Amino acid sequence: MNSSSYQQKRKQFFAKVENFWPDLYGEEYALYDVYQTNRDFVKMIHQASGRIGSIFYKTAKLLRQADDEILLEMGFPRETLSFLRITQLKNESVIARLDLVPYGGSVKCLELNSDTPTFIKEVFAVNEFICSEFGLENPNTGMEEKLSEAVQSSIIASITQSKLNLVFTAHHDHLEDLNTALYLQKLTKLPAKFVPLKSLQIKQGEGLYDEAGNKIDILYRQTYPIENLILDKDEQDHPIGLWLLELVALGKLSILNPPSAFLLQNKTVHAVIWGLHEQRHPYFTSQEHEWIDEYFLPTYLEPDPFLKTGTAFVKKPSFGREGDTVEIYDGKGMLKVEDSHKSYMCYTPVYQQYIELPEVSFTSEKGVQTGHMIIGSFLLNGEPGGIGCRVGNPITDNLSYFLPIGIR
């Protein structure tokens, strides 16, 4: 397929997909191409995801018992300490996404995006359309219904009274965030409305209100990170983000994802898991230690273990997204690759063993390209959900492509 033919077919195809963003930042985002795999690969991803998720969620129970000083050393903002130990739901996170790398017949987990993962509509809705277009089996068949059930059940579990004001929110001027929130709202099948973040009103210690002055009971903020929220101030310099967390702590507002999702969003949790594993700590069973050995990468709060062994490593902020502030070093500690954005320099860094992302070929408007692939694998209330691929630079950033995945 030549470039002009590809562009025409891509434009015609994505014009049929409602409320989607095939282009982002003025660049091609969703590819008119499919990464082809088999059922065994999908089964392996699901099995690994369930096991990895269980390790993280078990670790959350341990972290809630930790002293404040330990949580501060892990890089949690002091303002969030009382918020971190709240257990709003039985499950630690409603929608979470693991970033996985195929490795040696299995996978390695790079991180868990447990609080505000994106890539949702791509995986649970758009992937189906493009698999049908290419005559391939969709590995995510039935997962949209599972997503709907997960969102509904989490809302129902958060209800404390018969009358409910359920609000979905996001930045109204961010195409991806807005349409992700509206997509989840539509899947909810419960009475709900969308209110832009800028229209929310808060009264300290009393409640959160929509633009009509109605008190909000449950706020679904799929794309609004807690680490950004705590910095929010109004025009009078009131710390409205902290006031919102206070409402959650007082039981006057429920938020989804729940507070426990933020507890696991911190990448230093990887270092905690690996440290317990290296000690063969009895907190994990022998079976769980085998899973950590298979699926997790050595991760520390300093680079020394890698420098001593001459092992390449990645430095990443404990809170961060889209590859921002990530750096790759060789075994001598020499910087080899870095992301140009440095938004998360203020957060505690973690150091993780570097493994190269596999290279795959794909077709784009620029012709046939080769890019580095990462698998996004979702957990819905802790259970394996949909999967999808991103391809791009050695550090997966906000300019990486969405490459649909299909079964031959």
3D structure, described in words:
The protein has 408 residues and is of the alpha+beta class. The chain has 13 helices and 21 strands. Strands 4, 5, 17, 18, 19 and 20 form a six-stranded antiparallel beta sheet that branches. Strands 12-16-13-14-15 form a five-stranded antiparallel beta sheet. It has a four-stranded parallel beta sheet with strand order 7-6-10-11, with helices on one face. Helix 2 crosses helix 12. It is globular. The chain starts with a helix and ends with a strand. The model has no long low-confidence stretch (mean pLDDT 95).
Q: Layout of SSEs?
A:
Layout: H1 3-14, E1 23-24, E2 27-28, E3 35-37, H2 39-63, H3 68-73, H4 81-84, E4 95-103, E5 106-113, H5 120-134, H6 143-158, E6 166-168, H7 175-188, E7 193-194, E8 201-203, E9 207-209, E10 218-220, H8 226-229, H9 240-249, E11 254-256, H10 259-265, H11 268-278, H12 286-295, E12 299-300, H13 304-309, E13 313-317, E14 327-329, E15 335-338, E16 349-353, E17 359-364, E18 367-380, E19 383-392, E20 401-403, E21 405-407
Parallel strand pairs: 3-21, 6-7, 6-10, 10-11
Antiparallel strand pairs: 1-2, 4-5, 4-18, 8-9, 12-16, 13-14, 13-16, 14-15, 17-18, 18-19, 19-20
Class by alpha and beta content: alpha+beta
The total beta strand count reads: 21
Q: How many helical stretches? A: 13
User: pLDDT average, as an integer?
Assistant: 95
State the distance separating the first and last CA atoms. 20 Å
Shape: globular
- Sequence stretches where pLDDT stays below 50 over 5 or more residues: none
- Please estimate the helix content: 25-40%
Largest sheet: 6 strands, antiparallel
* Beta-strand residue percentage: 15-25%
